[in-house]
Amino acid sequence: MNAHILIGAASSGSGKTTLTLGLLRLLSKRGYAVQPFKCGPDYIDTQHHALAAGCPSVNLDTWMASEEHVRELYSRYGAKADVCLTEGVMGLFDGYDGMKGSSAAIASLLQIPVVLVLNARSMAYSVAPILYGYKHFDPTVRIAGVIFNQVAGESHFSYLKQACTDAGVHCFGYLPRQKDIEIPSRHLGLTLDEKFRFEEFADRIAASIEQYIQVDNLLNICSKETENVQSIYAPVSSCSSRKLKIAVAHDEAFNFTYQENINQLKEYGDVEFFSPLRHFSAPLSADLLYLPGGYPEFFLSPLSANKSMIQSIRDYALSGGRVLAECGGMMYLCNSITGMDGISYPMAGVLDQEATMENMKLHLGYRMGEYNGVTWRGHEFHYSSLRNPMESACQLYSARNTPVDTALIRYKNVIAGYTHLYWGEQCIFDLWK
């Protein structure tokens, strides 16, 4: 079998993540080799894909990366999979500029059949014109069928099936209203804390899908022959003639990374993971120290209390070591972080500014800027802010080329900011050239 599926929706909150996680778990339990993907820059859903499927999930983003690169990623990671399952982002046609960068654009580019998930809680036959519109709006986007979410029962489902028949869209089934398969959330999405038992949750969704959705029919319709995707893209070669040592922070506080970014770092040398929460010091012999984003605001006390780790990172940075710090990693390098409780916790003191979770406000969007003669692209998503922020080393812009006040800070060999950079097609060491 070689099935390719993109889970799309009319809007956020329709059930894309619930359906994707359940299908990943169910197909994995059936013994299929499943490769998950995520449309857009989301670095949280990919973590849950990995837990459900047992393998890393890969971002597909046509704004942060070229179409050639996206084709190559899909071909390379999906080469040995029985099922490639891609979760869309927002509504199917929602992009940064019309349809550009949308899930539909990814589906069209890679010729992936789309399975729509529609929240039918407050609808019945009225889904017919919605389905008809999605099927016919763009002939390059193939709608394979629909799955309904939040269905009240068989009577409700009978109206929905009639709508599918009249709209000419195949119906694969539905998910009923079940409190125990609704995804809990906090300000950055599905939680990974101990109170939420992910394995049991994924198994519950899988069981519901097995009962109410025609999975075999879905796989058969979405199966297609593997295309030999030709690409002009070539993997980034090492920036150095010697093998480099790269240290990457990874634990509950710092874990917002793109899979292909980590793979590119491995092309340059040896990657060693360390925990600012648990280890005594950072690997000081590293040629690059990478502090990605995450949830430092939920671990302020233990992060601040680990003085030996903080001192090792401070010594490394102040002695000229190369550091890339993104979002939560950048906050960790500040003088302090003030939590949602209003208490200020001392941090590394490398960057002369303070981060705070007070008066939380969402900052969201694509970001790009030219630095050292190279255009860098990435994504910003955070609720914190900076007090007395340091000056930016370059001007950053939105996806529509509008100037934004997000900073890219350069201090010694430390490069930091709120932007989560994507360097799957670039040499990250060009930041320091």
Can you give keywords for this protein?
alpha/beta; 24 strands; single chain; six-stranded mixed beta sheet; 433 residues; elongated
Layout of strands and helices, then pairs:
Elements: E1 3-9, H1 16-29, E2 34-39, H2 45-53, E3 58-60, H3 67-78, E4 83-87, H4 103-110, E5 114-119, H5 127-136, E6 143-151, H6 154-167, E7 171-176, H7 198-212, H8 215-222, E8 244-249, E9 254-256, H9 259-268, E10 269-274, E11 288-291, E12 293-294, H10 300-305, H11 307-318, E13 323-326, H12 328-332, E14 334-338, E15 344-346, E16 351-356, E17 363-371, E18 374-382, E19 385-387, E20 396-397, E21 403-404, E22 408-411, E23 414-417, E24 420-422
Parallel strand pairs: 1-4, 1-5, 2-3, 2-4, 5-6, 6-7, 8-10, 8-11, 11-13, 13-23, 14-16
Antiparallel strand pairs: 9-12, 14-15, 16-19, 17-18, 18-24, 20-21, 22-23
How would you describe this protein?
The chain is α/β, with parallel strands linked by helices and 433 residues long. 28% of the residues lie in helices and 27% in strands. The protein has helices spanning 16-29, 45-53, 67-78, 103-110, 127-136, 154-167, 198-212, 215-222, 259-268, 300-305, 307-318, 328-332, and strands at residues 3-9, 34-39, 58-60, 83-87, 114-119, 143-151, 171-176, 244-249, 254-256, 269-274, 288-291, 293-294, 323-326, 334-338, 344-346, 351-356, 363-371, 374-382, 385-387, 396-397, 403-404, 408-411, 414-417, 420-422. It has a 7-stranded parallel sheet with strand order 3-2-4-1-5-6-7, with helices on both faces. A hairpin with a 5-residue loop joins strand 20 and strand 21 (403-404). Helix 1 crosses helix 7 (198-212). The relative contact order is 0.11.
